[in-house]
Amino acid sequence: MPADCPTSIARVIRIPPQHGGWLEVICGPMFSGKSEEMIRRLRRAEIAGQRVVIFKPRIDERYDASDIVSHAGIRMRAVPVSSVGELTARTHGFDVVGIDEVQFFEPSIVGAALELADRGARVIAAGLDRDFRRLPFGPMPELLAHAEFVDKLQAVCHRCGGPATTTQRLVDGRPAPYSGETVLVGAAEQYEARCRGCHEPGADAALAAA
């Protein structure tokens, strides 16, 4: 190794802006702890005396109609909304705005999140970065591109126990066909976290790619 070559890689410097707002995105497959991490950050903001609100899409009623509930059972009171317009109308007066399951919102959520950040809010968005076909999910790619901070979490593969980065949808215990609906809210009975090697494409994957 050359003498001038560093022997270790320095830790990444992560300093939040001192003025104004910013956008944070927490992403990863199902069962990776995205909602739990969002709740942790929002609780710390509450302890710091900041005004906090968290929104969830109204279609997500897996565990509770109003609370954000992680797969581990950790919960926080949320505001269910049916549209981006309803979300933005209810953000006034808050320092920190959380948006859970952001992949379910319409594309205009990107502009709404950026506008909130421009107005000085800290925006924390959490959601799936890829769908069950392993394709970018809804507005997530653009949110990731605009975010000041991005955290991609890993789950545990249901098959081999390794680090999982994909979400496997199952129908009657078999990989779901790729022709199915992209948005299908479910939990353990319909989805598993899988690593790249254990992820199984749907039987019609070749046709879907054609």
Molecular structure report:
- The chain folds into 2 domains: about 20-155, P-loop containing nucleotide triphosphate hydrolases (Rossmann fold); about 165-205, Wheat Germ Agglutinin (Isolectin 2), domain 1, CATH 3.30.60.20.
- About 20% of the residues lie in helices and about 25% in strands.
- It has 5 helices and 13 strands.
- The strands form 4 sheets. It has a 6-stranded parallel beta sheet with strand order 5-2-6-7-1-8, sandwiched between helices. A 3-stranded antiparallel beta sheet has the order 12-11-13, with no helix packed on it. The chain has a two-stranded antiparallel ribbon with strand order 3-4.
- It is globular and about 50 Å long.
- The mean pLDDT is about 90.
CATH class of the largest domain: Alpha Beta
Q: Using the coordinates shown, work out and report the CATH topology of the largest domain.
A: Rossmann fold
Helix proportion range: 10-25%
Distance between the termini: 47 Å
- Helices and strands: which structural class? alpha/beta
As for the number of domains, it is 2
Order of helices and strands: EHEEEEHEHEHEEEEEEH
Molecular shape: globular
Write down the oligomeric state: single chain
Give a quick account of the main beta sheet: strands, pairing sense, barrel closure: 6 strands, parallel
Q: Unreliable segments (pLDDT under 50, ≥5 consecutive)?
A: none
Give the CATH architecture of the largest domain: 3-Layer(aba) Sandwich
The CATH homologous superfamily of the largest domain is called P-loop containing nucleotide triphosphate hydrolases
* Cα Rg: 18 Å
The chain-level mean pLDDT equals: 88
Strand segment tally: 13
The strand line-up of the biggest sheet is 5-2-6-7-1-8
Taken as a percent bin, the fraction of beta residues is 25-35%
Given the structure, what is the number of helices? 5
